[in-house]
Amino acid sequence: MADQHAAPASRSGSSAVPALRWEDLPEGPVIVLLDQRRLPVDETELICTDVPALIEAIRGLAVRGAPLLGVAGAYGLALAAVRGFDVEEAAERLAHARPTAVNLAYGVRRALAAHRVALRSGAGPEKAAEAALAEARALHREDAEASADMAAHGLTLLQELLPGGGYRILTHCNTGALVSGGEGTAFAVARAAHRAGELRRLWVDETRPLLQGARLTAYEAGRAGMPYTLLTDSAAGSLFSAGEVDAVLIGADRIAADGSVANKVGSYPLAVLARYHHVPFVVVAPTTTVDLGTQEGAAIEVEQRPGHEVTELPTTADATGTTASVPVAPVGAQAYNPAFDVTPPELVTAIVTENGVLSPVTEAGLAELCDRSRSGNGMMSI
Question: Is 291 a catalytic residue?
Answer without folding.
Answer: no
